[in-house]
Design brief:
Elements (H helix, E strand, L loop, with lengths): L3 H10 L14 E3 L6 H11 L2 E4 L17 E6 L2 H11 L5 E4 L13 E7 L6 H7 E12 L5 H8 L10 H10 L3 E14 L2 H10 L13 H14 L2 E13 L3
Parallel strand pairs: 2-3, 2-5, 3-4, 5-6
Antiparallel strand pairs: 1-7, 6-8, 7-8
Helix pairs in contact: 1-7
């Protein structure tokens, strides 16, 4: 069995660019939402003519669509992911535009009949509504309020769960932007980490889980977590996910 120091060194050395989670196989598991976002998104892409994927990451999910619309555009704000997405989406004829999460979208009004987004950090509903054509659709899977609360509280102490990622708040904001919410569902999903390196890689990759995480800053909490995993066999947390589909009236 690897020592604490070996697991820390391994977790700190794994590359974390993009949204490929294949490294975690055998070291962590995450239950998937029952609705199957990638499949549903792919079905909508096949029916679209002009589509936009917001905050695409490295383009991993978007690249899985079986059929691309005639115009396919993605945005991403982190330069390493921009490069990965451009390479990955090139076979689909996809264009990747570098846009920060808090910036307005550099597209004309009504430019797209489909806008999608998987796990956006922020949603600017007014901008989504603006770039959607009348009759267009916004389709998104998002992280819900209280996601990974067990891990966050272990690392940082008890944290207040606000409304920022509440599905009902998303409904209110979409409605306020002039969209009609057609579907809204949520689920709590089990995540299990079987060694400390997996936790470290996850926190380095999903950087908003524990803001400003570094191995040095959280050394003592990581040691305590390692001891708990050795005692219990794993560390279990739960992610919160919700699916929202909204329509812009014609």
């Amino acid at each position: 069995m690897a020592t604490f120091e070996e697991l820390v060194a391994e977790g700190a050395a794994v590359p974390v660019d993009g949204w490929d989670f294949s490294w975690f196989v055998g070291r962590a598991t995450e239950q998937r939402p029952s609705w199957g976002y990638a499949r549903l998104m792919g079905e909508r892409m096949a029916q679209a003519r002009r589509a936009l994927d917001l905050q695409t990451g490295g383009g991993e999910v978007l690249a899985s669509i079986p059929r691309a619309p005639e115009q396919l555009v993605a945005t991403e704000g982190w330069p390493p992911n921009v490069a990965l997405a451009r390479e990955r989406l090139a076979p689909l004829g996809g264009e990747v535009v570098e846009v920060g999460e808090d910036e307005d979208l550099p597209f004309p009004d009504g430019a797209f009949d489909l806008v999608v987004s998987r796990h956006p950090v922020t949603v600017h509903w007014d901008e989504v509504a603006r770039v959607l054509a009348p009759g267009g659709t916004y389709f998104s899977q998002q992280v819900g309020a209280g996601s990974l609360r067990e891990l966050i509280d272990f690392m940082m102490g008890p944290q207040e769960v606000g409304r920022a990622r509440d599905p009902e708040l998303a409904r209110e904001q979409a409605t306020a932007a002039g969209l009609t919410v057609l579907d809204l569902r949520s689920e709590a999903l089990r995540i299990e980490f079987v060694d400390l390196a997996a936790v470290i890689v996850f926190l380095r990759k999903v950087i908003w889980t524990v803001p400003n995480f570094t191995v040095d800053a959280y050394h003592d909490r990581l040691r305590a977590l390692h001891e708990q995993i050795e005692r219990d066999g794993s560390f279990v947390a739960h992610s919160q996910r919700f699916l929202i589909e909204a329509h812009k009236p014609a």
